[in-house]
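Reopening: structure tokens for the glutathione complex, inputs below.
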Amino acid sequence: MLKLYHFENSVCAQKVRMTLFEKGVEWESHEVNLFANAQYDPEYLKLNPKAYVPTLIHDGHAIRESTLICEYLDEIYPEPPLSSARPAERAQMRLWGKAVDEGLFEGVVVFSFSAMFRDRMKNQTREQRQQRFRNVGDAARRDRFMSTYDDGVESPYVLRGIGAYEIAFKLMDEALAGGDDWLSDNMFSLAEINLAPFVARLEYLQILDHWVAERPLVQNWWQRVKDRPCYQAEIATKLKQEEIDEMIESGAKISTRIGERRQEYIAAFKD
Ligand SMILES: N[C@@H](CCC(=O)N[C@@H](CS)C(=O)NCC(=O)O)C(=O)O
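Re-run output (same inputs, fresh job):
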């Protein structure tokens, strides 16, 4: 049977669980508690040397990287399809996965960190902080962590995240302008699955409106995604009330500044 190493409120793991739900396949759950540093367990590092979740185990192979895991699942379980039969549409769909991996993921990390985890870490000892954020050789990850730990929402990484979301939502608006319900070949696909946890986190942090208040097509698309049983099963109903409360309360602390920095971004980069 498939095994999934994951963590409940990890955005990357949510993508994979939504895909598994759509495919209707059985899987064995292995929790990697990121708050208890279980990602650094030497046995887990053999499966995922970057100390990340998720990792899928299938037929003795460890499959890593959530976007690639979702595509892998779509290949080995072709029904129901989560990507178009047409190669050009599939290429288009993969652009949404790239947008997540090349920008939205980092945005979610720095928004969540500035809102929630930074205050928590300020109360920890230096050793505890180092334990939590060993950089496993990843200099970019260390720089991002140091910058948001020091400067929170003023970090340049936050502006980068804001910009990545601005571009993604603008492109989404354009993709939906022709009247389609979904982003790729007008079918619910890995485009929606890749994006859903990254839009959901903004909504839970109460900052989504900065981008979508004036984008009704995106709002309607987002409602359709949330109505999907896989979203309900793997995101909405999996979060504990205290996690939801923490996201709402801590998001409120950064929301105004995120809105202002979005205006800074727009002013600086408008063409
Ligand atoms: N590009 C990777 C990123 C995986 C990743 O960073 N996962 C986060 C949770 S969403 C994690 O495990 N972080 C470990 C940590 O915070 O130490 C993927 O999409 O699978």
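The chain has a mean pLDDT of 95. Residues 2-76 form a domain with the Glutaredoxin fold (CATH 3.40.30.10). Marking as resolved unless the reporter disagrees.
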